Amino acid sequence: MSQATLILAHGAGAPMDSEFMQGMAERLAARGVSVLRFEFPYMAARRAGGGKRPPNPQAQLLDCWRDVYRQVRGMVEGPLAIGGKSMGGRMASLLVDELGADALVCLGYPFYAAGKPEKPRVAHLAGLQARSLIVQGERDALGNRETVSGYSLAPGITLEWLAAADHDLKPLKASGLTHAQHLQQAAERVAAFLRN
Q1: Known InterPro entries for this protein (predicted)?
Q2: 37, 2, 44: which is closest to 21 by C-alpha?
Q3: Which CATH number do you get for residue 37?
Q4: Which pTM does this prediction carry?
């Protein structure tokens, strides 16, 4: 079976080569997953010396995703999954069915904005057709285990909970677990999910 490829988008605040993104790409590559990263226009502009900019409007983010997917689909054979960290994963989730990607992978999904659990961003997740994996920290400020358990999610979505972890999958020190262990566990789950 040909190797799976995952296009991984960054979150709202950190670029594609942040410590988290770099570490996840390396861990996945070590497990046989090809990872491609890209930057949304606002982040590319920041890198070019444009100062700190907020994310582009959602329509622009989605168009950027469509362009990247089209380019990559033409270059790689075998299964092609899309996903990302936080905002990057949420944008991918809005497009995965439209694009016909083979799977969706979200690392720290922003189920709601910080401090606004009463305004969930989950309506589209109830009807999602794509096979999906969401790796989430149990105490994520944008979607903790207790709140998310009340949502109606499509049957093809698998939720993998990391004990005592936050939005960056970092566990509480008191848990006795380490960030490296959690990133390792996340990478193992993603690789196994993409192999199936």
Answers
A1: AB_hydrolase_fold, KANL3/Tex30_Abhydrolase, NSL3/Tex30
A2: 37
A3: 3.40.50.1820
A4: 0.97
